[in-house]
Amino acid sequence: MAKGGQGDIPRNNWKKAGNKRRAGILAPLFSIYSGNSAGLGDFGDLHILSDWCEKTGLSILQLLPMNEVGPVFCPYDAVSSFALEPMYISLDSLPEASDKAVKSMIADIKKKFPAGKKHVNYCIKEAKLAFLRQIYSTVGASSDLKGFKTFVSENAYWIEDFALFKVLKAYHEGRPWYEWADPYKGRDPKKMESFRKSHKDKIEFEKWLQWIAYSQFKSAKKHAASKGVLICGDLPILISRDSADVWANTEFFKLEFSAGAPPDMYCAKGQRWGMPTYDWEMIAGDGYRYIKEKLKYAENFYDMIRVDHVVGLFRIWSIPCNEPAENEGLNGFFDPADENIWWGHGRDILAVMLDSTSMLFTAEDLGVIPKACPDTLAEFAIPGNDVQRWVKDWAGTHDFIKPKDYRLLSVAMLSTHDTTNWPAWWEDEAGTVDETLFIRRTQGRGIDYENAKEELFDGRLSRHGRLRWLKSVMSADILADRLGKDVREIGDFIDMYENTYREKEKLWKHFGLKGPMKEKYSKETVEKALSMTLGSESAFCVELLMDYLYMTDIFDGDPYQNRINRPGTVSKDNWSLTIPISLEELLVHKVGGKIKAMVAAAGRAV
After folding, report:
1. pTM for the whole thing?
2. Based on the structure, what is the number of domains in the chain?
3. 523, 588, 599, 600: which has the fewest Cβ within 10 Å?
């Protein structure tokens, strides 16, 4: 597994993973909790989760990005590529936690912000920070002054700017850096030095927070290693416009553009993410140090790392910032514009990244991507993502690919953090098309949408903005007839139809289940779906913890509501979902034995 298919280049990055097929889970830290948690999961809870992984035969624990987030709490829109999120600090793990008065304060926080609610109350962050300020004002870094100084010295590349940025942001009442007074926005040297001196204690507190988070996360990694569990991080390709990285290194970013994604069959207007795109020429001119330093710091916590939106290293969808917000990603362009240089552009960046770390890379290579991207991933032995609902013979039968035909260099999965969970996909999305996209296409062809909707789709089974085909639409000719168009005029409609019509029936056949296909998910169908990805040829199989838990009865209500994120939306329900079972309960739940048996049967136990 340590060699690529095209260039056959061996990579030392595979050393930790070894020549083994592995299984794992994706568990956002905010989604889990224990009896020790204050408001949400923390670094201490990773110890318990690693214990559970060992018990179930899972040897990969994948997390979402752990960097400090901004006001919308999106881990892919962080205020730093380096700094860890301080709300994940375990209060019970602090050396001072044994003090009677401190213990009482922690108990009060837990009472006010109990863990285990369906969604995290992110007011917990300020409550934790207020408590940590009190601890710092009493002990500072005096408990291990040498360790603290060493940490700051070794991370001087980013921590000085980050700590200053955080205090300046508070000084400007939370406004983004590009709205600050000019001397602060432009980093006037004299003004910066004066501010550092007058706010020294607050700046040191920000560094101390990072030291505590660093120490606790490293401890969690050490414990995971003792259990034979590899921790997989997540490297966002982008960073928030209002971040320490952009403020301190404006020359590395194209601030006049916003990154996003072009329109496709799943998102009719495309996407506009808001983060600036990179000026790779400037980053390369600095010897890629910015990228190298990010990986160097991440290596403290991770054995593996997922490169988010890896195709963006080859070319990224860029939208002018003056484009009206309602147009989302419609009027963008690819940067670089010249398709002929995409291969070299992405390959050069990935080569630098691989040579800068011992972490094993995986890559999110979903969506419509140029050939240069999968070719380079194969050359460098970087596994991509094979998501069951999209792993099909797109050019031929449009049927689901058999497990033996999944890519060896891939991470197989049922769902991602940006999709519905598998039961919700089965009930509400399988065999459907996006209603917004369908409306846009009918409008563009002068087709009466309401009439087309009635002629083509089953109103009883269409919901959540998804249209389910009527079974009577049995061919492209029938589709064309009901649209009142010639088959030759509606190639895009036919593609949409062939990719989704009777999708559930096709997957049911793969499962080998007896009897007629059932519209509602069951524990049996979830188990069959999981067994399919576990039994795939893929080197790794990493599932949402939630998808595994749908083999139990712990969830209530419509599975569509149990979603980590809905791309393109800002909501208090995004990035806040909590599983309805504590880690202590999970450790003794019978589902663990079920998972262990499934992992062993698939030959993924290590």
Report:
1. 0.95
2. 1
3. 588
